[in-house]
Design goal:
The chain is of the alpha+beta class. It has helices at residues 3-24, 44-81, 96-99, 118-121, 198-207, 240-250, 260-268, 281-303, 337-346, 469-472, and strands spanning 27-30, 33-38, 41-42, 90-93, 111-117, 124-128, 133-139, 144-149, 159-164, 178-181, 186-193, 209-212, 224-225, 319-320, 363-368, 382-387, 393-403, 418-420, 433-438, 449-451, 458-467, 482-484. Helix 2 crosses helix 6, helix 2 crosses helix 9 (337-346) and helix 8 packs across helix 9. The longest helix is centred in the N-terminal third of the chain and has 38 residues, at 44-81. The protein is globular, with a radius of gyration of 28 Å.
Length: 485
């Protein structure tokens, strides 16, 4: 080989080595910072960083996915451990204090509800008395199984319902019942009494029965309980407590086919069915970061909704808060993950009656999170809401104020969170009403005022019970919440 060939060979070798070294030294700028690369592959020292990001993403998405399940599990746990309610007991929530633990509770009518573990009871019989009620049975993903009362198959005339757990056979005497098939072992049974007469409402509640199908020939009396002033909270826990509650309820429930990929994510984070929850330090870090970011995204997804049709009137700040097309949370080609996450971060339960499209039947909910200028509602400022004459509600309307942090009734010194057409409000000559919200009552409008808390933000629901055609065709409009001096 001549001198020129040897020199060319050494040059090519030097270039190859230089290119190799250059490739090894490359970095790729990404959302999580620079990632060291070896050519087209991540460098070995980058792999742990990428897996850390994957675990964080899995934890964030799992938080949002699990919101409805953790919400019911937390509520059930609080009823049991703080209020002494066992499976099959009914809790009567009547007063302002009773309802302080319920996410976005209706402050106008009483709630009668209880959690039932079908692992313990097997098929469950519910006897609903006739009368003006609205309610139903929901599974632990907060999917409506069946409505009861005015929007249910009994149409307010009462009747017997039979709730079947997953895999249960329909009994031979099924014709005696309205059949409800659950996809989870735990269910919520609840209803509201719509009669404004407290005595009639109490009598109706006392006729309600709930017992195992196996004891239908000698049913025991349903136990009625009250919080009795005890503090409790159905708000989803924060931090590692969120994941502990999720792990706890997963042990009691079958895995639905649609959730298997999320269960794979959870397994990567140390949360599995039939296994103890013992996360490694790396998994714990991902879970703690994920629950923090997950809730921040949940707040954006809830209080600044971006899905189509959320804004009810194009020129108003009011949202349609319950954007789940069907109680099953399912549309043609997907399940409504983000609509579901929004509703079950700010609220609990779902029935067909709550998304009524029939004039004169069910309820509807409008939510306001900002004033007319799009600014968050501030507990230190004063606001007015003008409610025009003849609101489209066959039964009644109500305006309720909630705390942003807990999503529960505002916990104010006034001990009042709502204004409604069932109250003795001061009206304008044309029949319209001006409602006020702020730290101090405006002179002469004390009856029309809800006290807000400085230093805290709030939001509101405007409910229409038995909405009429003017709501559905949008010929009646509700003004925006307006700041006042």
């Amino acid at each position: 080989m001549d001198h020129f060939s040897r020199l060319a060979g050494r040059t090519l070798l030097t270039l190859a080595v230089s290119c190799s070294i250059a490739a090894q030294a490359q970095t790729l700028e990404t959302r999580i910072g620079p990632v060291s690369m070896e050519g087209e592959l991540p460098a070995h020292e980058s792999v742990a960083k990428l897996y850390s990001e994957l675990d964080f993403q899995q934890a964030t998405q799992s938080y949002l996915w699990a919101l409805p399940l953790v919400s019911y599990a937390q509520w059930q746990e609080e009823f049991q451990n703080k209020l002494g309610a066992k499976s099959g007991d009914l809790m009567v929530l009547n007063s302002y204090e009773d309802k302080l633990g319920v996410i976005t509770a209706n402050a106008t009518t009483p709630y009668i509800l209880g959690f039932v573990d079908l692992n313990e009871t097997g098929p469950l019989v519910i006897e609903l008395p006739p009368g003006p009620t609205a309610g139903g049975v929901g599974d632990f993903w907060q999917r409506a199984i069946i409505d009861m009362g005015e929007t249910g198959p009994d149409k307010g005339k009462g009747g017997k319902y039979l709730v079947l757990p997953p895999g249960a056979q329909t009994p031979a005497d099924a014709g005696k019942y309205y059949i409800a098939k659950s996809e989870t072992m735990n269910v919520l049974v609840g209803f509201r009494v719509l009669d404004p007469d407290p005595a009639k409402g109490k009598a109706l509640v006392e006729q309600f029965k709930m017992y195992p199908y196996s004891k239908r020939t000698e049913p025991s009396k349903t136990k009625l309980l009250s919080p009795g002033g005890k503090a409790w909270s159905g708000t989803q826990p924060r931090g590692m407590a969120y994941w502990e509650r999720l792990h706890q309820i997963i042990q009691k429930e079958p895995v639905n086919e649609r959730d298997r990929f999320y269960m794979a994510m959870l397994a990567s984070l140390g949360i599995e069915k039939d296994k103890p929850f013992q996360p490694t330090p790396a998994q714990k870090k991902a879970l703690e970061d994920g629950v923090q970011m997950g809730e921040l995204i949940a707040k954006a997804n809830t209080f600044a909704k971006r899905f189509p049709g959320a804004q009810f009137w194009p020129d108003r700040q009011w949202d349609t808060v319950l954007n789940i097309a069907e109680p099953s949370q399912r549309v043609a080609f997907y399940d409504q993950l983000w609509e579901r996450s929004a509703w079950f971060y700010e609220a609990v339960t779902n029935t067909k009656g709550m998304v009524s499209k029939t004039p004169g039947l069910g309820q509807t909910y409008l939510g306001a999170y900002t004033d007319k200028d799009g600014q968050w509602l501030d507990g230190g400022k004063s606001y007015r809401l003008h409610v025009g004459p003849t609101p489209p509600a066959k039964q009644f309307w109500s305006m309720t104020v909630y705390d942003i942090d807990t999503r529960c009734l505002i916990d104010n010194p006034q001990r009042k969170a709502d204004l409604s057409s069932r109250q003795d409000l001061k009206k304008n000559p044309d029949g319209s009403v001006d409602l006020y919200f702020g730290p101090k009552a405006p002179d002469g409008f004390e009856k029309n005022w809800v006290q807000t808390v400085p230093g805290k933000h709030w939001f509101s629901y405007f409910r229409l019970y038995a909405p009429t055609e003017a709501y559905f065709d949008k010929s009646w409009k509700l003004d925006d919440i307006t700041p006042v001096n």
